[in-house]
Amino acid sequence: MTRPRIHILNGPNLNLLGQREPGIYGHESLEDIARDCAALGQELGLETALQQTNHEGALVEMIQAARGVAAGIIINPAAYTHSSIAILDALTAFDGPVIEVHLSNIHKREAFRHYSYVSTRADAVIAGCGAQGYLFALRRMAVLLG
Ligand code: DQA
What we know:
The chain is of the alpha/beta class. It has a single domain, classed as Dehydroquinase, class II (Rossmann fold). It has helices at about 20-25, 30-45, 55-65, 85-90, 130-145, and strands at about 5-10, 45-50, 70-75, 100, 125. The longest helix has 15 residues, at about 30-45. The protein starts with a strand and ends with a helix. The structure holds 1,3,4-trihydroxy-5-OXO-cyclohexanecarboxylic acid. 1,3,4-trihydroxy-5-OXO-cyclohexanecarboxylic acid binds near residues 13 and 102.
């Protein structure tokens, strides 16, 4: 039987994880996160597919492409979290659960990071847990889909 697919979508600059401000974002690369999510997904009976883009329109297209294909979306929209109504609208057009993840605690940082458009759609928000946040999101996704 095919396992429910979870699309794990990542926004700008997250391709630099592990190299970019490791004091804030940690030492794990996006490839490490993809591997850990795939392993946990296996345990939970979920298939994971991780993607990253530096472009807002491309992220909108990835969200649209998840329609009818993915059971749920885990998304770290990075800086677009705080600016993109287009990403919010695309997520609103997706029927399944959406979990928003941030490696850093956005509420402990600059005021411009405190507001998230995506949170008005997200079923859960995880912030400040580093790379582990993606794994928490996957566990929660299994509960929501169970
Ligand atoms: C981030 C937080 C955002 O404010 C920032 O622009 C990012 C990463 C995080 O994972 O902590 O690029 O989404």
